[in-house]
Design goal:
Helix content: 25-40%
Low-confidence stretches: 595-621
Radius of gyration: 34 Å
Number of strands: 32
Strand content: 25-35%
Oligomer: single chain
Structural class: alpha+beta
Mean pLDDT: 87
Shape: elongated
Length: 621
C-alpha cells in the first residue's frame, strides 16, 4: 500500500495540474475582459460567450477614478430603492462611452453616468418611474487618509491628491444618489480653497463694464435683426428675438416702427405665444398659451424639484399664487432637504428667485433664507481663477446662457446682502460670457431681460392686487397699470402708455362684471372683432376670468371702469394711478366799460392775463 509514494505523488500532481489548467483554459475561452480608459477614468467589464455562441456582459463592472473604485457584482450589486421603499438589485445590461465618461445601463431603464469635467467626477442617476435612488458600492486605496466631514461628505488625502467626495448619503463602502442630487469627487488644490474674495483685483468686475457690454449687444440685436428683416429672412428669427427687438426699439422711441417692421407671416403664424401678444393682438388664442404656461408652472412646483427654480417666470408665478398651500410648500422645500446640495445652476435659480421675491414680499422670500449661503457656496466651490479671470466649472453649467444666469444670481444676491465680492464675481462671469465670440443673436433674445431689466416695453406680468387669495394681474407692456375700487362697486383700471399708440393687455383674475364696462367715458359692449377696430375694445372670458383689452390711447391714460353689483373683498397692492384733470378753458375777458379809468382798465387786463388756476390738480381713481 505504501509502495512507490513518490510516483503516486507525481501522478496526482500531474492530474490536478491538468484539471486546473483545463478549467482556466475553458474559462478564458468563453470569457474576456473589456477595458476602456478616458484620462483619469477607467472602465472594466467582463463578457462571456453563451451556449448558443452569443456574447453577453456579466453582471459586474468596475470604474476607477484617482484610486477610488466603483464596482458591482452578483454578490455586491447596485441597489435601487423604489418609490414604495423597496430595495431591488440592478442587473447590468450594457454600457455607453461618451466624450467625457461612461454610462452604465441596467435593466428596467436604470442608468448611472460617470463623467469627468475639469478635475471633477460627477455620478448622475437616471430613473424610471419606479426608482428614486441608487446605492453604489465603492472602495478607496489604502494610501488615502479619510476625514469624515458629514454624512454626505468626506475628504480623501494622499501624497499626491486631495479629494472631496460628496453624495446624498456616504458610507464607508457605499454611497447613495437620488432624484435631488448627484455624487461628485472634486480635486482640490492644496493651496487655500477658493473664495470670491480673490476676485477683488480682477478686471471686468463692475456694473459699468456690464452696461457697456449690454449696450453693444442691444445695438447688435437692432442691427442684425434689421438686416434679416430687410432681406426677408425673418423666418430665421424666433419669437424671443423678435420681442426683444421690438422692446429695444420701443425703448428708443420707435414703437410704431418696430411693430410695423415685423412681417404679417410672423404675426399670423404659428411661432407666436402669449409672449408677443401685447404687440400683435390675437388675444383670444394667445391667452390659451398663457393658461397652458401657468399649468406647466403649477406642475413644476407640485413636483418639488430644485430645477423648478430655474424656470423662466417662476418668481412672478410664485407671487401670484403665494397664498396657495402648494406654493407655500414649494418655497419651503429647499430648506427642508436634509442633504441640500444644489448644482450651480439650481443654486442660481434659487438665488434669483429669492432676490426677486424679496423685492416684492420679504416675508414670503424669507422661507428661502436658510439656504442662501449654501447656494452661494455651491457656486463658489465650482469657481477658480485662470488666466487672470474667473471661470466656473460645474456639470450643470453647459452653456454661456447658464453662466450668464449664474452671474446674474451673484449680482442680485450680492446687492441684496451687501456682499461686494459676490457682486464682483457675478459681473466677471457676466462680462466674460457677454464678450464671448460664441454669443448669437438668439442668445441675445434669450437674455434680453438681463441686459435691459427695467425696460417696461418688454412683456411682463404686473400683479395688481388680490380678491381674497386670488391674484389680479396683467400681461402687459404698459408703463404702469392700476386696478382699484372707488366707489365700492366700481373697479377703475388705469393704463399708462404713450399718447396715440396701441397695445394689448391680458388681465387675469377679474370676476364677472356682467359686461358693464366703460372705456374713456363711453359704455362698450363685447365684440369678438374688437381688435379690428380703430378704437379701444374688449372681450371677457368668464371661464378663465380673463379681460382682453385693446388699448388705443387717445390720451396717455386709458381709463376703464367695470361695474359690479355688490362690493368685493379686493385688496390692491399697486396704488391708483393719478390721472391729471384736463385744464379748464380760460375765461373770456370782460369788455371794458367806457366809464372805467385807465387804472381800472389796466387792473382788469392784468387779472385776465393770469394763468388758469388748478391746472395741475388730479383726481385719484
Amino acid at each position: 500500500m505504501h509502495k512507490h509514494p513518490v510516483r503516486k505523488f507525481l501522478g496526482l500532481f500531474a492530474l490536478y495540474t491538468f484539471i486546473i489548467v483545463g478549467i482556466f483554459v475553458l474559462q478564458f475561452k468563453t470569457e474576456s475582459i473589456i477595458s476602456r480608459t478616458l484620462g483619469a477614468l477607467s472602465l472594466t467589464l467582463a463578457q462571456t460567450r453563451t451556449e448558443d455562441d452569443q456574447i453577453k456582459l456579466k453582471n459586474q463592472f468596475e470604474i476607477e477614478y484617482k484610486n477610488i473604485k466603483f464596482s458591482a457584482s452578483e454578490k455586491t450589486p447596485v441597489i435601487a430603492k423604489t418609490t414604495k421603499g423597496e430595495s431591488q438589485a440592478l442587473i447590468l445590461e450594457n454600457y455607453e462611452e461618451t466624450a467625457n465618461g461612461f454610462t452604465i445601463l441596467f435593466q428596467n431603464n436604470a442608468k448611472i453616468s460617470f463623467t469627468v469635467n475639469n478635475d471633477r467626477l460627477s455620478v448622475f442617476p437616471s430613473f424610471n418611474s419606479t426608482y428614486r435612488s441608487y446605492t453604489i458600492p465603492y472602495s478607496t486605496s489604502k494610501k488615502f487618509n479619510t476625514e469624515r466631514i458629514s454624512s454626505s461628505n468626506m475628504m480623501l488625502s494622499s501624497k499626491n491628491d486631495l479629494l472631496s467626495f460628496s453624495a446624498s448619503s456616504l458610507k464607508e463602502d457605499s454611497f447613495e444618489i437620488s432624484t435631488d442630487s448627484a455624487a461628485s469627487i472634486i480635486s482640490i488644490s492644496r493651496q487655500k480653497s477658493f473664495s470670491f474674495d480673490a476676485v477683488a483685483q480682477l478686471e471686468k468686475s463692475t456694473k459699468k463694464d456690464f452696461d457697456s457690454n449690454a449696450k453693444k449687444l442691444c445695438d447688435t440685436l437692432i442691427n442684425k435683426t434689421n438686416e434679416l428683416l430687410v432681406s426677408n429672412n425673418a423666418a430665421s428669427l424666433n419669437e424671443k428675438t423678435i420681442v426683444a427687438y421690438v422692446a429695444e426699439l420701443s425703448k428708443r422711441g420707435k414703437y410704431t416702427q418696430a411693430v410695423n417692421s415685423i412681417p404679417e407671416s410672423f404675426k399670423t403664424g404659428t411661432k407666436r405665444t402669449y409672449l408677443s401678444a401685447p404687440y400683435f393682438n390675437n388675444l383670444v388664442e394667445m391667452n390659451k398659451t398663457l393658461s397652458a404656461a401657468n399649468s406647466r408652472m403649477a406642475s413644476a412646483i407640485s413636483a418639488k424639484s430644485l430645477d423648478a427654480f430655474t424656470t423662466e417666470g417662476i418668481s412672478s408665478y410664485l407671487l401670484r399664487e403665494k397664498f396657495k398651500s402648494s406654493t407655500q410648500e414649494f418655497i419651503a422645500y429647499p430648506a427642508s432637504i436634509s442633504k441640500f446640495a444644489p448644482t450651480a445652476v439650481q443654486a442660481a435659480g434659487i438665488l434669483n428667485t429669492y432676490a426677486d421675491l424679496s423685492a416684492k414680499d420679504r416675508k414670503f422670500a424669507s422661507k428661502l433664507e436658510p439656504v442662501i449661503d449654501q447656494c452661494v457656496e455651491s457656486i463658489q466651490k465650482s469657481c477658480s481663477i485662470k488666466d487672470k479671470t474667473l471661470i466656473i466649472a460645474d456639470p450643470s453649467v453647459k452653456s454661456l446662457i447658464d453662466q450668464i444666469k449664474v452671474g446674474e444670481a451673484l449680482v442680485k444676491i450680492g446687492t441684496e446682502k451687501a456682499k461686494d465680492s459676490w457682486t464682483k464675481a457675478g459681473y466677471i462671469l457676466l462680462n466674460t460670457a457677454l464678450e464671448s465670440k460664441e454669443i448669437t443673436l438668439q442668445n441675445v433674445g434669450d437674455i434680453y431681460t438681463i441686459l435691459s431689466p427695467q425696460n417696461k416695453y418688454y412683456p411682463h406680468a404686473e400683479i395688481l392686487g388680490y380678491y381674497g387669495t386670488n391674484a389680479v394681474w396683467a400681461w402687459t407692456i404698459a408703463t404702469a397699470v392700476s386696478y382699484t375700487f372707488e366707489p365700492a362697486t366700481t373697479a377703475n383700471i388705469v393704463i399708462d402708455f404713450p399718447l396715440n399708440l396701441t397695445h394689448y393687455v391680458i388681465f387675469s383674475g377679474i370676476p364677472s362684471f356682467d359686461n358693464k364696462i366703460q372705456i374713456q367715458g363711453l359704455m362698450f359692449r363685447t365684440d369678438p372683432r374688437f381688435e379690428a377696430y380703430n378704437s379701444s375694445g374688449y372681450v371677457y372670458q368668464a371661464t378663465t376670468q380673463s379681460l382682453l383689452i385693446k388699448s388705443r390711447h387717445k390720451s396717455r391714460f386709458e381709463v376703464i371702469r367695470l361695474y359690479f353689483n355688490t362690493p368685493s373683498n379686493y385688496t390692491n397692492i399697486i396704488p391708483a394711478i393719478k390721472v391729471p384733470k384736463p385744464a379748464p378753458a380760460p375765461k373770456p375777458a370782460e369788455p371794458v366799460k367806457p366809464a372805467e379809468t385807465a387804472e381800472g382798465t389796466a387792473e382788469a387786463t392784468a387779472e385776465n392775463a393770469k394763468p388758469a388756476e388748478n391746472t395741475e390738480k388730479t383726481e385719484q381713481l
